[in-house]
Amino acid sequence: MTNRAPGEGEASRFGISVAKARACAGASATARPARMNLSIDDFARGVLAADRAVLGRAISLIESTLPADEAIAQQVLERLLPSTGHSLRIGLTGTPGAGKSTFIDSLGTMLTERGHRIAVLAIDPTSRVSGGSILGDRTRMSRLSNNPHAFVRPSPSGGTLGGIARKTREAMLVCEAAGFDIVLIETVGVGQSETAIADMSDVVVALSIPGAGDELQGIKRGLLELVDVLVVNKAEGDNAAKARTAAAEYTAALRVMRGEGDRSRVAVLTCSALTGDGVWQVFEEVRSRYASLRASGSLEPRRRNQDRHWLRSLLHERLDRLLLDLPGARSAFTDAEAAVLEGRTPPVVAVERVINALRTDLRGESRGY
Ligand SMILES: Nc1nc2c(ncn2[C@@H]2O[C@H](COP(=O)(O)OP(=O)(O)O)[C@@H](O)[C@H]2O)c(=O)[nH]1
Ligand SMILES: [Mg+2]
After folding, report:
1. CA 100 / ligand 2 centre spacing (Å)
2. Which of 34, 87, 205, 323 is the most buried (most CB within 10 A)?
3. Which of 93, 113, 88 has its CA nearest to residue 183?
4. What architecture does CATH give domain 305-367?
C-alpha cells in the first residue's frame, strides 16, 4: 500500500473493501490522509458493524485537519447520525491526580462485566504538553485498555479547546453508532473544558480528593452549575474519615449556595477508585439522574439545547475563518487591529470597518456564482 498525498486518488476511496483495509492495518500510518482509502460507505458500514479498526480510523478521520478528510468526515457523520444518541453520556471532571483515570478503569470494568460496552474519550487542551491525559494514563486504565468491550481513545492533540471539544463530541457520536451504550468523557478540571464537557454529557461527575481544608474553595460557583454528582475519591484506609468530613463540608456548602429547597441538588458521595469501594454507588446515582431526565422528558430537550450551543460555536469558529479567508476583510482586520493597538481608533469603530469590508467581499463572492 502506497502513501497517498491529500486529495490524490479520489476514485480509489470507493474501491477498497473494509476487509482489505483491515489487512493493511499493520502498515505504517505516517503522513497518510486519515481516510486511508476507505470510502464513506466503508466507514459507515464498518462503524455500524462495530469494527474496531474502522472505528479507530473514523475517529482519526474526524480528528484530521486535512480539508479533504474533513469533507469526508462530515459525510460519514451525517450517515451515522440516525444511529447515534442511544448511550448514557457521562462527563467526568476533576483536578489532575484526583483519580479520574483510575475511577474510569474501575467503573468501566464493572460495567463491562455487567454486559455494557464502554467508550472512553477525553478533552484535554494540555495534552500536547502533558503527553495526553489518557494516553499517558494508559497504565492507569490497564484493565480497560485491554478489555474487548471497551474502547479507549486519548484526547485529540493540538488546536483550540473548542476544536478539541468538537472532535471529542463527534468521536462520541461515532462510538454511539458503533453500539457503545455508555460513553465516559474525561477532562482536566481547568477552566472552560468543564463547560465543554457539560455541553456533551447527560450527567456530569466531579471527582475531588480530601485536601487540607480547601474543600469549600474547591467548589466554584460556575462548576456547581454544571455538576450533578460530586465525589470525594481516595476514601479508603486512613483517608476514609477525612473523605467523609470533606463530603459533609461539601454538602453543607452546597446547601448554602443552592438554597435548602433546591430540587436539582448535587449529590455528594465518597469512593475509592483504587479499591472499588463506593464506585458502583456513584454509577447508581448517575443512572438514577439519567433515568429521571428520561422519565421527565428533559433528556431530548437537553441534548437539542446542547446541539444548539454547538451550532453557535461552530458558526462562530467558521465566521472567524471566513473573515481570514476573504482578502478585503482580512486586510481590514489587520488594519483595524493596528489602529486599535496604536490607540488611533476605538474598537467599536474599527469593527464597523471590518464588517463593511466583509460585506464588500461577500457581495463580490456572490456575483461570482
Ligand atoms: N489511595 C488512592 N489512590 C488513588 C485512588 N484513585 C487514584 N489514586 C492514585 O492517584 C494518582 C492519580 O490517579 P489518576 O487516575 O491518574 O488521576 P487523574 O489525573 O484524575 O486521571 C495515581 O497514583 C492513582 O493510583 C484512590 O481511590 N485511592
Ligand atoms: Mg487521567
Report:
1. 5
2. 205
3. 88
4. Orthogonal Bundle (1.10)
